[in-house]
Design goal:
Layout lengths: L3 H6 L3 H11 L6 H8 L5 H12 L1 H6 L2 H8 L3 H10 L5 H18 L15 H22 L2 H12 L4 E5 L2 H15 L4 E4 L2 H9 L6 E5 L6 H12 L3 E6 L5 H5 L2 E4 L10 H4 L1 H18 L1 H25 L18
Parallel strand pairs: 1-2, 1-3, 3-4, 4-5
Length: about 325
Amino acid sequence: MVDHEVDTAAGTAVVDADAIDRRNSPSDGVLARVRNGLGELTGALRRVAEHVLSDPEAAARSTIVELAERSGTSPATITRFCRAMGFEGYADLRLGIASETGRARSAGWTVDIGREIQPSDPLARVLDQIMAADTRAMHDTATLLDLSEVERAAVAIAGASRVNIFGASGSALVGEEMQFSLHRIGVAAWAWNDIHEGLASAALLRSGDVALGISHTGQTRETIEMLAEAGSRGATTLALTGFPRSPLAELADIVLLTASQATTFRPDALSARHPQLVVLDLLYIAVAQRTHDRAHAAFRRTAQAVDGHKAAKRLSGNPQPTPGFPTTSEGVRS
């Protein structure tokens, strides 16, 4: 039965859908766009999106009337949803979903995606599900990512005298990896997860410096405050997030988008970690390319600085670490 009340309530969601439409290119992956825009849709449009994501193959086989009935909406809502996703009509949407699910099936990406992991599942099946979900998330991230924004971010970092990286919880771990990578190629970078220390550091930034805020939801208050402080001091602000209209993204000069594919025990924020690392690896390489001579020399010197420890480890076979003194993996990584 079609829920006309829900469909009518979706009128306010059309504005959000139009905003999503302006950000999407017809060449983007359909399901990636639906996941990316899900948090911004309300009412009937959101119900259509959730139904499509729950079973893309069934959606691709459905008529417009069938999809409307199954999602509890109306054919008119399905048409608005198609426009929000960048398609002229339902036939184009169906073809896009069918093509994408067909490619995913051929690549093995659809194995158990969305299925709950059961206590009795063998580890082989769990591994297949995790691999399929991560592969899909990284593929979707590659689809969503605007390489011109990565280029802008790389140019800003390459020319910066100081780079601050802000994040909390799991995002802080991702930020520390980026800080270490930049440090190895001679970029003065600091990673902050404490709000007081982060705000104090952000207050000392100025024009020409760069601040990067990492938050999958884009709603982490501490990260938003630190990035806002950096921006108020004239620093170029970057946001790494899964939601382009989140508070973090709205205040950033440059936005880098990631996708995620949640699985049991790995909600969106956790499943986004690998895609986040991929995007930051790309950004790091782009910075190294633009500072090649400096980066190469710095990387060589840092490698030489720890080479003695690696040589000692090779000679002794498997030495026990000295108490209180970090091993290579614990301290200076290589």
